[in-house]
Specification:
Domain HTH merR-type: 7-71
GO biological process, one term: regulation of DNA-templated transcription
Order of helices and strands: HHEEHHEHHHEHEEHEEEEEH
Number of strands: 11
Structural class: alpha+beta
Oligomer: single chain
Protein name: HTH merR-type domain-containing protein
Shape: elongated
GO molecular function: DNA binding
Pfam family, one: MerR_1
Length: 329
């Protein structure tokens, strides 16, 4: 290995990356890159070069900062094991609120059921009383009497029994089907009220929600994050930084009629997705940008992390070329 001091610049030249990239490695992994001397310039040990080389390779493989830190701890003895705070997901709390008309319908149904039970009990008592009186009068059992009998008393008793049986079946059917016989809602109406019960969710939803982001977010500068974690600002005319509002206004101004862009926003757990769709173009140039808000030393910004055109991934340079072309129209 070369005897020259290992500075930021020297390590960057050996690894084929920028000096800013090496400095970003130190910010992301402050206790993993050994320092030999804290003078000016800062000098590093030979182990620091190997750590930076490993970080470069792991980032190129698509690993996150947490995963990279874990790999470094497994490979180098002087790198401590990372400690990550695990946040337990709160159980979703669902509160069911029933409308007032549904409560009233259920109350009416309960009252009707009580009335039916009372009527049933009264009917049973009357039938028992009639049978007792018939036995006292010496009237034979109706069921045992021959059907061909022409005794007028038996005929009248049979008619009364048939009417009583029909009424009993009607009451029993009403009890089984839950049909009210007094004033109030029908069973069908009560079921309809039940289906209209309102459900309020007390925790944020994790599925994708389609709506525009807050106005403050639309006014934040746009940056691109490359595979090495470096940030590059998107610039417009005169190399001035642009915001989401600037980008949308430029698209609306320079692309009209069949080439007009439709802007669609959606939010998920990782941030925001912006779909720029040429829905009427014969050869559409659809763009999808995935971004999230983050804070820097200069303030809040919107960082574009993933970029695709017609479903194919594009580089930050290609996106900047497209924006430059828009502003040059």
């Amino acid at each position: 290995m070369s005897q020259m001091p290992l500075t930021h610049k020297r390590i960057a030249r050996i690894l084929g990356v920028s000096e800013t990239t090496i400095k970003s490695y130190r910010r992301k992994f402050p206790d993993c890159i050994p320092v030999a001397s804290k003078g000016k310039p800062i000098q590093f040990t030979e182990e620091a070069l190997e750590v930076c080389r490993a970080i470069r390779d792991l980032f190129s493989s698509g690993l996150s900062i947490e995963e990279t830190h874990q790999r470094l701890a497994d490979r180098f003895e002087f790198v401590a094991q990372p400690v990550f705070e695990q946040q337990e997901e709160e159980a979703e709390v669902v509160e069911v609120v029933l409308p007032d008309d549904y409560k009233q319908a259920m109350s009416s149904l309960a009252t009707s059921m009580v009335n039916l039970s009372m009527k049933q009990e009264q009917m049973l008592k009357k039938m028992a009383s009639i049978e007792a009186r018939l036995q006292q009068l010496g009237v034979p059992d109706i069921a045992a009497a021959p059907q061909s009998s022409t005794d007028p008393v038996l005929e009248e008793i049979r008619a009364l029994a048939d009417r009583t049986e029909a009424l009993w079946e009607a009451v029993s059917c009403s009890m089984e089907q839950g049909i009210t016989v007094s004033e109030g809602d029908s069973a069908q109406e009560i079921d309809e009220h039940g289906r209209k019960a309102t459900v309020h969710r007390m925790v944020p939803l994790r599925e994708v929600i389609s709506h525009d982001p807050p106005r403050k977010m639309l006014a934040l500068p746009l940056l691109i994050q490359d595979n090495e974690g470096e940030y590059t600002p998107l610039v417009g005319r005169g190399n001035s930084r642009i915001t989401l509002n600037d980008l949308r206004a430029s698209l609306m101004t320079h692309f009209v009629e069949e080439d007009a862009y439709t802007v669609r926003w959606s939010e998920n757990n990782s941030g925001w997705q912006l779909d720029l769709l040429q829905e009427r173009a014969q050869i559409p140039h659809n763009i999808c940008l995935t971004m999230a808000q983050t804070s820097t030393l200069r303030g809040s910004v919107m960082v574009i992390k993933d970029m695709t055109t017609n479903g194919h991934e594009i580089t930050p340079g290609a996106l900047q070329d497209f924006i430059s072309d828009v502003y040059s129209r």
